[in-house]
């Protein structure tokens, strides 16, 4: 935003110089020459109509109007330059000497074609040199410039061209900055929408699966109590409570994973493995992984480690993250249980890994969960990066 403001300020300064300085100098030249007329004027009868025409042209080219098409502007600028060049040797001792210089600068700043602007200025310089020689020959008693000095009246055209180029560059930069700002805002809105969708899917997966299990257990408890199986109904209620507690933990882990989304995937898994007392091995050179893929890898690791804690307490756990040219793979393995399972915690809905498998499929990957040869369990996830 600061860059856009800087461009606007610089462009405004250029417009100020273009919009006020030239008109001020034109008005000074007209006013001073008119007040001092005919002091310093050679051949007043010829100089007066030239002065009037030059004054009209000088003011006219500075007035913005829809009438100024490219061809009309070129014609008027040419007339302005040539009339000023003819007036120069007749009034070079007055403020009228500014007219050809102002005409050349105005041509450089207003004519779109550089070739046309330099052509107008060069023609005016030649006319000024020729007119100086002619007036010097017709009125040898008057003080005149050297003819080659009059050629300098065309030089300000380069100043006008340079100023026009600078203003055009600033305007282009201003437009580019504004477009970049709009593009950045659009990308930010799109990213926010994607993030909201990701959070919504995550919360839906966690709570949807957990609430389904809770509802199933409560329905079972209601049916058992109606048949006189009070103890079994009470156990079902306890399992529902355990699922609710587990759902709260899963939601917290999901929120934590969303917050950790900006960390590199190996670092996030390293923290997760350390928190769950599991070993982590990384194969291949770590490479950038898309946000959706990285989040799915973390969620599968969390789900697998949670299932291990439920169904194989005390078992050894190991994570392996592998990077290939275009894919990333996660393997979570646990050995057989070495402690007695908690019946309430071990029972679950069985849909956690099913949801993860669906998410992997949506991303173009695969997820496998199967018993291992050592009596444990292995979960394998593979996703495109």
Could you give a short description of this structure?
With 385 residues, the chain is of the alpha+beta class. It has 12 helices and 5 strands. Strands 1-2-3-5-4 form a 5-stranded mixed β-sheet.
Q: What integer is the average pLDDT?
A: 81
Q: Count every helix, treating DSSP H or I runs of 4 or more residues as helices.
A: 12
Overall SS class: alpha+beta
CATH domain class of the largest domain: Alpha Beta
Note the gap between the termini. Answer: 34 Å
Give the tally of structural domains: 2
CATH architecture of the largest domain: 2-Layer Sandwich
Q: Kindly state the percentage of residues in helix.
A: 55-70%
Strand order of the largest sheet: 1-2-3-5-4
Strand content: 5-15%
Instruction: Outline the low-pLDDT stretches.
Output: 1-11, 344-351
Q: Tell me the CATH superfamily of the largest domain.
A: Histidine kinase-like ATPase, C-terminal domain
- The ordered string of helix (H) and strand (E) elements is HHHHHHHHHEHEEHHEE
Oligomer kind? single chain
Sheet of most strands: 5 strands, mixed
Give structural attributes.
385 residues; 68% helix; 9% strand; 2 domains; single chain; Heat Shock Protein 90; disordered N terminus; five-stranded mixed β-sheet; alpha+beta
Written description of the protein model:
- It is a single chain.
- The protein starts with a helix and ends with a strand.
- The radius of gyration is 43 Å and the shape is rod-shaped.
- It has 385 residues and is an alpha+beta fold.
- It is built from twelve helices and five strands.
- A five-stranded mixed sheet has the order 1-2-3-5-4.
- The chain is 68% helix and 9% strand.
- Residues 1-11 and 344-351 have low confidence and may be disordered.
């Amino acid at each position: 935003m600061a860059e856009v403001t800087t461009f606007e300020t610089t462009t405004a300064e250029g417009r100020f110089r273009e919009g006020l300085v030239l008109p001020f100098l034109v008005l000074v030249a007209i006013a001073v020459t008119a007040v001092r007329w005919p002091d310093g004027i050679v051949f007043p009868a010829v100089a007066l109509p030239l002065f009037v025409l030059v004054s009209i042209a000088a003011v006219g080219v500075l007035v913005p109007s829809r009438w100024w098409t490219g061809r009309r502007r070129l014609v008027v600028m040419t007339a302005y330059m040539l009339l000023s060049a003819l007036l120069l040797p007749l009034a070079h001792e007055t403020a009228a000497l500014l007219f050809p210089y102002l005409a050349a600068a105005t041509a450089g700043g207003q004519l779109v074609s550089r070739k046309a602007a330099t052509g107008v200025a060069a023609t005016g310089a030649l006319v000024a040199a020729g007119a100086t020689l002619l007036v010097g020959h017709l009125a040898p008693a008057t003080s005149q410039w050297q003819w080659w000095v009059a050629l300098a009246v065309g030089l300000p055209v380069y100043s006008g061209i340079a100023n026009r180029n600078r203003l055009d560059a600033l305007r282009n930069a201003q437009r580019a900055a504004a477009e970049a700002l709009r593009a950045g805002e659009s990308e930010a809105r799109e990213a926010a929408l994607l993030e909201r969708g990701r959070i919504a899917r995550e919360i839906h997966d966690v709570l949807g699966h957990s609430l389904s299990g809770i509802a199933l257990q409560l329905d079972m408890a209601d049916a058992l109590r109606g048949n006189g199986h009070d103890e079994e109904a009470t156990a079902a209620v306890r399992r529902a409570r355990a699922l609710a507690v587990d759902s709260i933990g899963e939601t917290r882990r999901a929120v934590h994973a969303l917050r950790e989304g900006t960390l590199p995937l190996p670092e996030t898994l390293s923290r997760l493995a350390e928190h769950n007392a599991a070993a982590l091995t990384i194969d291949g050179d770590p490479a950038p992984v898309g946000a959706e893929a990285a989040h799915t890898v973390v969620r599968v690791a969390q789900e697998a480690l949670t299932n291990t804690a439920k169904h194989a307490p005390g078992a050894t756990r190991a994570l392996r993250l592998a990077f290939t040219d275009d894919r990333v793979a996660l393997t979570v393995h646990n050995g057989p249980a070495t402690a007695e399972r908690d019946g309430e915690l071990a029972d679950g809905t069985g849909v956690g890994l099913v949801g993860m498998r669906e998410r992997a499929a949506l991303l173009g990957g695969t997820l496998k969960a199967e018993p291992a040869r050592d009596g444990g369990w292995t979960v394998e996830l593979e996703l495109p990066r």
